[in-house]
Amino acid sequence: MLPSNLLVARAKGYFIRPKYSVFSDLELYVARKLVRAFSRSVGSKRKHLEDSVKKIEDESFKLGLDYRFARGLAHLLYRRVEFIKPKTKIDPLKARLEIFAETSQLYSFALSEDERRDVLEKVSERLNVSTEELLEAFKAAYEEEQIVGSFKEISAEDLLREYNLSLTQTLLFKALSINIDVEVSGTEAKIILFNVKRLSLMYVAEKRENGIRLTIDGPASVLKQTERYGTRIAKLIPYIVALQRWKIFAKVRKQNKIYSFYITDKYSKLFPKIQLRLVEYDSDVEETFYKRFQTLGSGWKIFREPEPLVVGKHIFIPDFAFAKNGVKVYLEIVGFWTKEYLDRKIKKLRSLRDVKIILAVNEELSCSKVFKKEFEDVILYKKKLPAPEVYLVLKKYDPSPATRIKKKTKEKPIRLPEEAETYISGLKAAKLSTVLEKLSKYGLTYKDVVRVLEEKGFEILWTSVDPNRVIVRKRSVSLNSE
User: Fold this and answer.
1) Is the pLDDT of residue 138 over 70?
2) C-beta of residue 291 within 8 angstroms of C-beta of residue 300
3) Is 419 helix (H, G, I), strand (E, B) or coil?
4) Dihedral sign, Cα of residue 260, residue 266, residue 269, residue 275
5) What is the mean pLDDT of the segment spanning 335-359?
6) CA dist., res. 114 & res. 39, Å (int)
7) What is the structure's pLDDT at 368?
8) Has residue 104 got a pLDDT over 90?
9) Residue 319 pLDDT > 60, yes or no?
C-alpha cells in the first residue's frame, strides 16, 4: 500500500480508477533506473541512495510522468531495503549526550568554530577517542548516515505490478463498501473464506452458481480503527487478483464525493501473481481458547475451523464446532465490528432455525459506539475469550437427560421483599454493579437480578462483561437522564 498522497487516480463522472502502469517503455525505463540505483547502493550511506532517487524522480517528471509515479515506486523499493547503523568506536547516543553536556557547561549552544573545536577535544579526550571518531559517532544517530545493508532484488516488470496492486489497495482504503465476486473451486473458496475470517473483516458471504460473493464493509464506513482495518483489507486483495476469475466493485469516498470503482480479471496481467494460501492469525485468541476449553472436562468435543456453513444462499464461517451426543453447536469469533454490522449478522442468525451458533465479540475491535446485547448467545470479551463462559452457553444445548428434564421444568417466579420492590420501582438508570450490590442483600443471585430486571421492563446495555460498565435503564429512559 502507498501513502494516500501518492495515490494517482482519475475520476470521470461517477467512476474512479487508479492510473495503472501499462508497462510502457518510459515506465519501464524509470523502474529499471530505480531498481539499479537501489541494487548498487548496498554498502553505501542512505543519503547517497536518497540523492540518486531524487535525481531519477526529477528525470521522470521532466519526461512527462506524474511526479507521484517515481516516488511511489521508490516507496515500494525502500520497503525492500534493510538499513543498518554505521559501526562506530563509541555509542552514538553517548557521544551526543557527552557533547551536549559539555557544551551546556562551558558555552551557549550557539558555538563559534573555536568553541566547537574546544568541546570536541575535551569530550574525545575524556572518552579516549579521536575527534574524528567522536564526530563519526555523533553523526551516526542521523537517519541519513545509515548504511544500506541489503536489498531484496526485484525486476522492473514485477515492481510495476506491485505498484499497480498498491494503487488498488490505497484506493480501497477510501471505500465505503466492497463487493467481490470470484469463480473458484471448493478448495479455493475455502481458503478465501478463511482468509477473510482470519483478517477479522466485516463481511457477508453468499454462495453463487460458480463461486462466492463477498460484501465487505469498507474502511471509510467505520468511525474508529480505520487504518488498522484498512490494512487488513489491503492484505486480502493480492489473493483475489491472483485468482482466475474475479470482479471487484466498490463505493469510494474521495473529497466528499462518492464514486464507483470497478475492475475484473480482464486486467489480471497488471498485478503480481501469488500463491493462494492461508494467512497467519495476528493473535493467539483462537489457539489459547482451544487449549483452555479442552481442559474444562465439559464432555463436548471441540473442532477448529470446521467446514463453512451454507444456509440457503448465505455462508457462515465458524471458528469452532462443538459436538456432544449428536448435537452440534458452532462458535464464530467476530473480528472488527460496528453496531450496524452486528445488527445485520444477528438478524441473519435469528433466521437460522436448525443451526446453533454462539457469537464471541471482542470489545477491543469495536469500530463504532455502544453495542446493545439483544441476541441471547453473544459473549463479549477482551484480550482472551473465556472458555468457561462459552461452556455456560453450551450447557443449554446439552443433550444429556438431566439437561432435558431441567429444560422442561418451568422456572419458579422470584418473590421479592417489599424493600427490593420499592428500590426497583424507583430505579430509572444505574450501573448493573450497583443494582447487584443492592439486591444481593435479599439473597438474589446474578441470574436472578438479570431475570427480574428484564421482567420488570428494564433493558441492559451490555457494553462490557464488567458489571461496572453495564448500564441498566427503564426502556423509556434515555442515558442522559442518569
Assistant:
1) yes
2) no
3) helix
4) positive
5) 80
6) 42
7) 65
8) no
9) yes
Strand partners, 334: 361
C-alpha cell at 349: 442468525
Q: Is 225 left (phi over 0), alpha (psi -120 to 50) or beta?
A: left
Is 171 exposed, middle or buried, given 0-12, 13-18 or 19+ CB atoms closer than 10 A?
A: buried
Classify strands 327-334 and 378-381 as parallel, antiparallel or unpaired: unpaired
- Which residue in this structure is represented by grid cell 463462559? 389
Four-residue CA torsion sign, 399, 401, 403, 405: positive
- DSSP, res 219: G
Taking the C-alpha atoms of residue 74 and residue 229, their distance in angstroms, rounded to an integer, is 25
| Residue 429 to residue 449: CA distance in whole angstroms | 15
Strands 314-316 and 203-208: antiparallel
Per the CB < 8 A criterion, the answer to whether 372 and 265 are in contact is no
CA distance 163 to 158: 9
- E strands, 218-356, where? 245-254, 257-264, 301-304, 309-311, 314-316, 320-324, 327-334
Antiparallel, parallel or unpaired: β 471-474 and 429-431 = antiparallel
**Full DSSP string of 271-303:** S------PPPPSSSHHHHHHHHHHTS--S-EEE
* Domains parsed from the chain with CATH numbers: 92-145 (no CATH), 173-281 (3.30.70), 285-407 (3.40.1350), 411-481 (no CATH)
One-character DSSP codes across 62-81: HTT--HHHHHHHHHHHHTTE
Confidence category of residue 480, pLDDT binned at 50, 70, 90: very low
Inter-helix orientation angle 113-127/131-139, to 10°: 100
Average of per-residue pLDDT values in the chain: 84
Say which DSSP state 259 is in. E
pLDDT exceeds cutoff 50 at 477: no
Here the cell at position 72 is: 511511489
Write down the pLDDT at residue 372. 53
Residue 451: pLDDT band (50, 70, 90) is confident
Q: How many residues does the chain have?
A: 482
Residues 390 and 360: beta-carbon distance below 8 Å: yes
Listed in sequence order, the residues at least 6 apart from 279 whose beta carbon sits closer than 8 Å to its beta carbon are: 195, 198, 199, 235, 239
